[in-house]
Amino acid sequence: MALLITAKCINCDMCEPECPNQAISLGDVIYEIDVARCTECVGHYEVPTCQSVCPIDNTIITDPQHPESRDALWEKFVRLHP
């Protein structure tokens, strides 16, 4: 699954620079994750860095609207980083 930033986001600016796929950007109100670019850090790190640096628990969650297998996330990583 891609990740989702919830309304708990405090716009602390911690997640955006940590994303290796440049999938995070500031939306109208809070930061947002581009599901076409989010690989949950598959191909880069063992765990999603945005979740690791977020100071608010359960703010960045798996997006139930965009289920993807680990293999699908890997394929997306390969497309983004040829």
From TrEMBL:
Gene3D superfamilies: 3.30.70.20. The keyword Metal-binding applies. This is YfhL family 4Fe-4S dicluster ferredoxin. Pfam families: Fer4_7. Residues 1-29 form the 4Fe-4S ferredoxin-type domain. NCBIfam families: di_4Fe-4S_YfhL. One of its GO terms (molecular function) is metal ion binding.
